[in-house]
Amino acid sequence: MSNPLDTDAGSELFGSYEAELKLVQADLNQKLDQIPELSGEPRKAAVHQAERALDEANELLDQMRIEKQNIPSAIRNKVNQRFRNFESDVDSCKRKLKSLSDDRRALFGDRYTDNPASDAQLEQRQQLLSGSDPLDRSSHRLRESQRLALETEDIGRGTLADLHVQRETIVHARGNLLESEGYVDKSVKTLRGMARRMATNRIITVAIITVLVLLIIAVIYSKFH
Asked: How far separated are the first and last CA of the chain, in Å rounded?
């Protein structure tokens, strides 16, 4: 039997499926142990109950198969080994149930015979044998539908995760854009200030040159007069 998955080592949802599967396996093994002691209608009812438990175990395996993909790769090998152990246990129960189901004499009791003595006995036997086929097909379709639903849910979770990452990227890029716009505004203000200072300095320089020229002219004029 597989060991339980540590809650701090993987998906809590996988762990819950694992615990539920252990209970279903225990119930299935109990039913399989009871079937050899029964015959006739009680045995047939016990076989149907075991089949339902086996279907439930297979459904849980399908859910675990999908959920284990969400477990970190560092511990996935350990989880895969436990999952294979569960699959092996369920397959063993399936083979045992098939063996018990094939024992038609015990299943149908005194009504069973390898050479039916009358058409009524043959017809009754065929009806009983074919009665489980629709149930098997319905169970198979139900498992397939549930598997597809779980796969769709898993794809949806992956898509939502991708959208979340893209949203974070867009928000981050928008923040960087706003920050860049702030830097541009500061740069424009700085350039405008420098331009104003350059214009002021040019005016001051022109005024100084003009004053110097006037002084030189005044000095020259005073020497000749």
From this structure: 126
Radius of gyration, CA atoms only, the chain: 43
Which helix (H) or strand (E) element contains residue 56?
A: helix 40-67
Please tell me the distance from the alpha carbon of residue 134 to that of residue 111, in angstroms, as a whole number.
23
Least confident residue range of 23-37, 71-85, 108-122, 165-179: 108-122
pLDDT tens per residue across span 34-61: 888 888 888 888 889 999 999 999 999 9
Residue keyed to tokens 């999908």: 66
d(CA 17, CA 218): 106
Torsion angle of C-alpha atoms 112, 118, 124, 129, degrees rounded to 10: 60
| Residue 128: exposure state from Cβ atoms within 10 A (0-12, 13-18, ≥19) | middle
Q: How far, in Å, CA of 151 to CA of 154, rounded? A: 5
Nearest to 24 by CA among 90, 76, 82, 115: 90
| Lookup: tokens for 69 | 């993909």
- Check whether 95 has a pLDDT greater than 90: yes
